[in-house]
Amino acid sequence: MPFYHKLGKIPPKRHTQFRKPDGSLYAEQLFGTIGFDGMSTNSYHEHRPTQVKEIRKQYNVAPKIAKANHIQSYRFRGFQVQPENDYLESRKAVLTNSDCTIILAAPKQSTQAYFYKNTDADELIFIHKGTGKLRTMLGNLDFKYGDYLLIPRGIIYKIDFNTEDNRLFIVESRRPIYTPKRYRNWFGQLLEHAPFCERDLRQPQELETHNEKGDFIIKVKKQDDIFEMVYATHPFDVVGYDGYNYPYAFSIHDFEPITGRIHQPPPVHQTFETDAFVVCSFVPRLYDYHPDSIPAPYNHSNIDSDEVLYYVDGDFMSRNDIDAGHISLHPAGIPHGPHPGATERSIGQTKTDELAVMVDTFKPLMVTEEAMKIADEEYIKSWLE
Ligand SMILES: [Fe+2]
């Protein structure tokens, strides 16, 4: 998060004595990224956060690849992913490369028996269905339909759902996820031409502090293995923190679309960036207003990036036979464009209600075995007249 946040109790000067009412010291932890060069947070714990009792299990959760090299456009029917009780087991990686993994999940139950920590990747969780509360060591965030939850790597969390009907679209990123640099000034403040501002980014306001000892399981993901680590103290024992590295939420419904007289290119929809992929939000908006404008996009050849669109809601103007929860994959190397009839159909229309999330990766994506279970292999022919 590119701006400063403070929650709970902290001492006036960092790295100085900060004592509990009984006179003992709180345990300070500097939690940083990119060595000591990236964003960091300074937190104060009831107990030292280093008290490992044992490592109980280790198992691999790397995505199983079905198609590594390919040049095929696919449609995946995301809602065919079966709901599962456990949050981590419900997460099905569908597309992956060395920079990121795209995951679909339909978890039915809140995480109760364990905490989760992903040290490999930042997680961007888009809430397609469901409401609840993300609980983290640095505070909680309520979520609902349309929210992006950004959890920087290493933040310990649990997720509570209010009902069993939940659908998540998750991007794991091995590079930090930021808001686009071109929308920020040299101080990091979001500029006037940005499609959102600081008021739209929700920071944790509710800090849970558990001063407890016992056996606390943290499932730690590292190098695609899960290590079940048992800690002697509750991982949510922070009494206060400040800094820049913390989870936050942003609703896609707060993204203000940028429109024009003629078709605007995908970068106007950009919401997040990394140096390996971008995330864009397609939201309800007015169409282009040149008298001869064509609202549907032109054919385009994303020769060096794979395009993943996750369809959330509304009628997606350029595609035929696309429903909520579908993913389209248009791979690098070949052109794609509107489906037959979509260009003519778009002319004269004044607005769209479409809602979609797009992930464009610079490296090709591999298709997983889980993805092939919900794949439409005929989609490649869907542009034929
Ligand atoms: Fe495209």
From TrEMBL:
Key word rRNA processing present: no
Transmembrane segments: none
Coiled-coil region(s): none
UniProt xrefs under InterPro entries: HgmA_C, HgmA_N, Homogentis_dOase, RmlC-like_jellyroll, RmlC_Cupin_sf
Cofactor(s) required, per the database record: Fe cation
Domain Homogentisate 1,2-dioxygenase C-terminal: 282-383
PANTHER family: HOMOGENTISATE 1,2-DIOXYGENASE
Family affiliation: Belongs to the homogentisate dioxygenase family.
Protein name: Homogentisate 1,2-dioxygenase
Lineage: Bacteria, Pseudomonadati, Bacteroidota, Flavobacteriia, Flavobacteriales
